């Protein structure tokens, strides 16, 4: 009875008083101290006085500034980036930015502009990027010319522009990006294009314009980084108009909401009269495709035929020895051999992902591509009971292989013997049947990245990852371990070079303190979405300077002895854990608040206990873990009770001793 009473008195005596201290939120969100602020969608009608004068990046969109003038941003003389998207701006007055000499980017997207003064952009010494998307512009004469000599990108999409004729003195010599997408341009004249003669390596975007005619010679002798004419159905008009021009990249694809039009060999005749390295024809439909369809494609280095309804590529295609990259995603092949890979002997990059039918992997379909370095066959429902040497025959230079999101694959010992130079292997969400006790990866001695997430692996096989002496990045997310724990001896032990490890969503309960002892080079460890407690942190005690993700676990308290381990790490995420905010966890909470700069996800790092503090952010909690007034009272009573008990005990002992003399 007395001991129980004593425990009760001690518990009351050291009871804690807890409270949340809520700091008042800034009106604008600070992204980088004194430099970067987000003030979007706050209903503001002026720049808040709380913004420091040193602000360099200001996101001010979705507020209300119908008029901007030279007093609007006076204080912010260090501005470099200003986003005023959808602020209902109608008027931009003279010298609005006269004090912002460092300003290089102005975004005015979505403002119904009525007036811009001739000197509206006066002030910045090097204004490089200007966005006037969806501002109601119908004529390029509306854009102020003054102080745009350094302009590199001009975005004019989604307006009502019908002519690309610039004012005579508009400076185009430094332009690198000119975007006219989704306007009302139907005709491009030679005179219009002459204004761009001084621009070099220009990326010009006409996507979404229904161009019906281009003056012969309008693009004559002009050179472009990229040209985009997406969504235009009559490709022959475009290709004839581009005669005698040069482009690194030509985008001629169409979009989901556009009508399909059959592409005939005749449409590509104009391609023979221009120089281009890369073409995108996505979502078009080839009619009567044959080897002659590709007659004018011989100079290409890259060809993208995504979603072009292809069932096969014709045999007999000649002259495409220059082609390095071929994209055949989202088509209708039955077998891999139907691409007739031998027609493209110089390919280094091949992508066939998201096929609309189950793709038969075949055997030796790619053996003529001995220079192939990158192969993406993901999302194809490929199934193979014995993978992958027959299928990847004669691909000795392959460095990247993606077989993720396919049907079950059976892997024998040295399943990738045909491609010993693999550096990146992705098998995510593909059920793997390992059919040999040895590792299927044991010959991949230069492999650096291996994604085995959600592969339903037998993680009890300690030899599964043997031979991967240079592996740097391993993803085991979604695989389960025996008894829901990682033991001292495990499949990770051979990976001495590992730097990044993901064990997210593995349903783990615990990790042995020596489980990662051989992994001394790790810099990034993701243990999120498990059921780990604070004790599992001890497994990382030999590591320092790492990124540690422990979000969404079952961590309630972290023992004081483990704070040293956490203090040695660079970044820690403890969000969405049921943290205990009582005095039992006082040492951790104090340390957490002192080291807040180490943590990410602090807005989601909250208390779960006691109920009175549930949902309170951990950095807002203040604990008083001393003796309360009630505790002092009970301490006095308790000591008085002990003193009386001691007196009676001494008196009893003396009487007993006297009686037995």
Automatic annotation (TrEMBL):
Quaternary assembly? M-shaped tetramer of two CD180-LY86 heterodimers.
Topology term for the membrane: Single-pass type I membrane protein
- Main function: May cooperate with MD-1 and TLR4 to mediate the innate immune response to bacterial lipopolysaccharide (LPS) in B-cells. Leads to NF-kappa-B activation. Also involved in the life/death decision of B-cells.
Protein name (record): CD180 antigen
This protein's UniProt keywords: Cell membrane, Glycoprotein, Immunity, Inflammatory response, Innate immunity, Leucine-rich repeat, Membrane, Receptor, Repeat, Signal, Transmembrane, Transmembrane helix
Major localization listed first in the record, in broad terms: membrane
What family classification does the UniProt entry report for this protein?
Belongs to the Toll-like receptor family.
Q: Name the coiled-coil region(s).
A: none
Question: According to its UniProt record, where is this protein located?
Answer: Cell membrane
Q: Name one GO cellular component term.
A: nucleoplasm
Any Pfam family matching the protein: LRR_8
The regions listed as transmembrane in this protein's record are 632-654
Q: Which GO terms describe its molecular function?
A: lipopolysaccharide immune receptor activity
Q: Which SMART domains match?
A: LRR_TYP, LRRCT
Q: Where is the signal peptide?
A: 1-20
The record, for InterPro entries, names: Cys-rich_flank_reg_C, Leu-rich_rpt, Leu-rich_rpt_typical-subtyp, LRR_11, LRR_dom_sf
Q: List GO BP terms, alphabetically.
A: B cell proliferation involved in immune response; inflammatory response; innate immune response; positive regulation of lipopolysaccharide-mediated signaling pathway
Residue ranges of every copy of the LRRCT domain listed in the record: 577-626
């Amino acid at each position: 009875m007395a001991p129980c009473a004593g425990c009760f008195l001690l518990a009351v005596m050291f009871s804690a008083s807890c409270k949340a201290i809520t700091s008042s939120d800034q009106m604008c969100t600070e992204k980088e101290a004194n430099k970067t602020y987000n003030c979007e969608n706050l209903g503001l009608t002026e720049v808040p006085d709380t913004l420091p004068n040193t602000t360099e990046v200001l996101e001010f969109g979705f507020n209300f500034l119908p008029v901007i003038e030279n007093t609007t941003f006076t204080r912010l003389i260090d501005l470099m980036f200003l986003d005023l998207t959808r602020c209902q701006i109608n008027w931009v007055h003279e010298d609005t930015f006269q004090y912002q000499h460092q300003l290089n980017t102005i975004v005015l997207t979505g403002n119904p502009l009525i007036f811009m003064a001739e000197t509206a952009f006066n002030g910045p010494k090097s204004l490089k990027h200007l966005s006037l998307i969806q501002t109601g512009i119908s004529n390029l004469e509306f854009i102020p010319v003054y102080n745009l000599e350094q302009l590199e990108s001009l975005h004019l999409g989604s307006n009502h522009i019908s002519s690309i004729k610039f004012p005579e003195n508009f400076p185009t010599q430094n332009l690198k990006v000119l975007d006219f997408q989704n306007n009302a341009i139907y005709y491009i004249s030679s005179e219009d294009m002459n204004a761009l003669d001084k621009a070099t390596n220009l990326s010009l975007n006409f996507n979404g314009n229904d161009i019906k005619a281009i003056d012969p010679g309008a693009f004559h002798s002009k050179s472009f980084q990229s040209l985009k004419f997406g969504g235009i159905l009559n490709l022959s008009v475009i290709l004839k108009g581009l005669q005698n021009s040069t482009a690194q990249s030509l985008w001629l694809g169409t979009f989901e909401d556009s009508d399909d039009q059959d592409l005939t060999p005749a449409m590509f005749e104009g391609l023979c009269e221009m120089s281009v390295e890369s073409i995108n024809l996505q979502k078009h439909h080839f009619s009567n495709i044959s080897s002659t369809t590709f007659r004018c494609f011989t100079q290409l280095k890259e060809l993208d035929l995504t979603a072009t309804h292809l069932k096969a590529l014709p045999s007999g295609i000649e002259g495409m020895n220059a082609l390095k990259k071929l994209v055949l995603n989202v088509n209708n092949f039955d077998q891999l051999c139907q691409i007739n890979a031998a027609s493209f002997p110089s390919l280094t990059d091949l992508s066939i992902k998201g096929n609309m039918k189950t793709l038969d992997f075949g055997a030796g379909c790619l053996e003529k591509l001995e220079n192939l370095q990158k192969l993406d066959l993901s999302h194809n429902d490929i199934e193979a009971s014995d993978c992958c040497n027959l299928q990847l025959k004669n691909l000795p230079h392959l460095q990247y292989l993606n077989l993720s999101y396919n049907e079950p694959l059976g892997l024998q010992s040295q399943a990738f013997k045909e491609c010993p130079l693999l550096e990146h292997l992705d098998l995510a969400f593909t059920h793997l049947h390992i059919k040999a006790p040895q590792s299927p990866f044991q010959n991949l001695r230069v492999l650096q990245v291996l994604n085995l997430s959600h592969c339903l692996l037998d993680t009890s096989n300690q030899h599964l990852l043997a031979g991967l002496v240079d592996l740097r990045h391993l993803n085991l997310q979604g695989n389960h371990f025996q008894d829901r724990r990682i033991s001292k001896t495990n499949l990770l032990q051979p990976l001495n070079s590992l730097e990044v490890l993901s064990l997210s969503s593995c349903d783990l309960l615990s990790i042995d303190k020596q489980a990662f002892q051989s992994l001394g080079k790790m810099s990034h460890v993701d243990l999120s979405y498990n059921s780990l407690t604070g004790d599992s942190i001890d497994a990382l005690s030999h590591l320092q300077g790492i990124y540690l993700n422990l979000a969404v676990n079952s961590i309630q308290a972290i023992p004081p002895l483990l704070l040293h381990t956490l203090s040695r790490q660079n970044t820690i995420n403890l969000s969405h854990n049921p943290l205990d905010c009582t005095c039992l966890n006082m040492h951790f909470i104090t340390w957490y608040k002192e080291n807040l700069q180490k943590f990410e996800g602090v807005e989601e790092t909250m208390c779960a206990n006691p109920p009175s503090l549930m949902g309170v952010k951990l950095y807002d909690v203040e604990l008083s873990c001393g003796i309360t007034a009630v505790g002092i009272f009970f301490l006095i009573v308790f000591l008085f009770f002990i003193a009386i008990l001691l007196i009676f005990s001494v008196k009893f002992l003396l009487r007993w001793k006297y009686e037995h003399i």
